[in-house]
Design a protein that fits this description.
2 domains, mainly beta, four-stranded antiparallel β-sheet, 231 residues
């Protein structure tokens, strides 16, 4: 709970919010020290410090995040089916009471035609961490499993020795990890990317994913939503 934005503040109030042991010393509470979190920009890091510097200060939570975009779709198994579509981005963005630079995981690129030769004919190739069609068969590419977040879909296979070209596999999305320091009550807007799925013949990419961890508790997202930082 934030300290009052005006009026009287005591050392005990500061200790209750930020922790510490008796006897209390105001010098324990410089910003960036053992107790004072860096979100409280009014509190100095050294030098003169006063109780008034702590107006509106609040202990922030450390939020560890993992975020993955949508995987790319594989290309079709023959020329008329075309290239696969890209997966869309996943992101964490500032919302009410929150201020940080948006974190984005880029969706994977779609597979392209033609795929490389394998032996004496062209075949579909796998996207990163995904599946592909049987070599030499003019069949649709396998879609990435839904739980393989951000994986690319497989390219369609081409018939042996035909004029048609096997499709390349879709690419995997990027994966971002890091830590945010945010005050309780702040709200994060979570956008989850979709896997590429625009054509027939190419395997669909898997959708994206996000995980936010605070005080050992994980909150997972496989669809878009919001997250409120706990006290």
């Amino acid at each position: 709970m934030a300290l009052p934005s005006s009026g009287t503040i005591s050392l005990n109030d500061i200790q209750t919010e930020f922790g510490g042991t008796n006897p209390i010393s105001i010098s324990e509470y410089y910003r960036g020290g053992s107790f004072m979190s860096d979100n409280n920009s009014n509190v100095p890091t050294s030098g003169t410090i006063d109780l008034a510097d702590f107006h509106g200060s609040v202990l922030a939570n450390s939020i560890t995040y993992e975020i993955i975009g949508g995987g790319g779709e594989g290309a079709g198994g023959y020329t008329g089916q075309g290239n696969g579509s890209a997966g869309t981005d996943s992101s964490l963005a500032s919302s009410s009471g929150t201020s940080f630079t948006t974190v984005t995981s880029t969706g994977g690129a779609g597979g392209t035609q033609p795929a490389p030769f394998s032996g004496s004919f062209r075949v579909g190739e796998a996207g990163e961490a995904s599946y592909y069609s049987d070599s030499g068969n003019q069949t649709a590419g396998y879609s990435a499993p839904a739980t393989s977040y951000g994986a690319g879909g497989g390219g369609g296979g081409a018939a042996p020795f035909s004029a048609n070209n096997g499709g390349g596999g879709g690419k995997a999305a990027t994966r971002q990890t890091g830590t945010l320091l945010l005050a309780p009550g702040s709200v994060i807007t979570v956008t989850i990317g979709t896997g590429g799925n625009a054509i027939s013949g190419g395997g669909n990419g898997a959708g994206g994913y996000a995980k936010l961890t605070v005080n050992g508790t994980d909150t997972e997202f496989t669809s878009s939503g919001t997250y409120t930082v706990p006290s």
